[in-house]
Amino acid sequence: MSMLTDFKMTKDGLILVVKDYDNLENVLNEITSRVAEMSNFFAQGDKVMLLVENNEKHTRDMPIIVASLRKLGLEVSQILMGSSSGDNVRIRSRMKMIEEKDTKSGTKVIKKNLRSGQTIVHSGDVLVIGNVHAGAEIMAGGSITVFGNAKGVLRAGLNEGKQAVIASVCLEASLLQIGGAILREVPAFSEPSVAHLREDNIVVERLNELKFVEE
């Protein structure tokens, strides 16, 4: 039986490689077992890089994998895009993780600008007090609120699903995702606006014209 996960030591540090998979629970169980086997190697708060093959396919699982690693005492320092074969790891691009402590409600509050090449991955809601520049990315299990200009990739509802929203003071994102719905041609709004789902499609509306459909 082939393994779904592997820790690989590189000149840049330790990488957890997750092979393309069909069942997330199997991946999480295997990660737990591998970390337990290496308990003498790891210390609480050690940092690892995370590479999930076929990254786009598994985007919705990323907050869950990162949260699982955190529960095991490991912090993810970078999200890598690439593949592995044998002992070789081919990295196409990398995103540096931005970490701030969660509030008591579980919301992650970022009090800084999110620059190109930086990412936030969190299982709950994300609140950014600053700008999200082009080339930056947020993956949130819940909703995303940006008190600034949002130009990067914003993925919300990866755990929460259809009830999540994306709100920004100025929304010029290159891609929006809520749950399983993706919007690649995002209308630009230079005023407070909210993206939400309507009939399984993402719509973006000005805050003062916002109309949620009551279920």
Write the layout of secondary structure elements.
Blueprint: E1 5-10, E2 13-18, H1 24-37, E3 46-52, H2 62-71, E4 74-85, E5 88-97, E6 108-110, E7 118-122, E8 126-128, E9 137-140, E10 144-150, E11 153-156, E12 166-171, E13 175-178, E14 181-183, E15 193-198, E16 201-206
Parallel strand pairs: 2-3, 3-4, 5-7, 6-8, 7-9, 8-10, 9-11, 10-12, 11-13
Antiparallel strand pairs: 1-2, 4-5, 12-15, 13-14, 15-16
Give an account of the 3D structure.
The chain is mainly beta and 215 residues long. The chain has helices spanning 24-37, 62-71; strands spanning 5-10, 13-18, 46-52, 74-85, 88-97, 108-110, 118-122, 126-128, 137-140, 144-150, 153-156, 166-171, 175-178, 181-183, 193-198, 201-206. It has a ten-stranded mixed beta sheet. The chain has a six-stranded mixed beta sheet with strand order 6-8-10-12-15-16, with no helix packed on it. It is elongated.
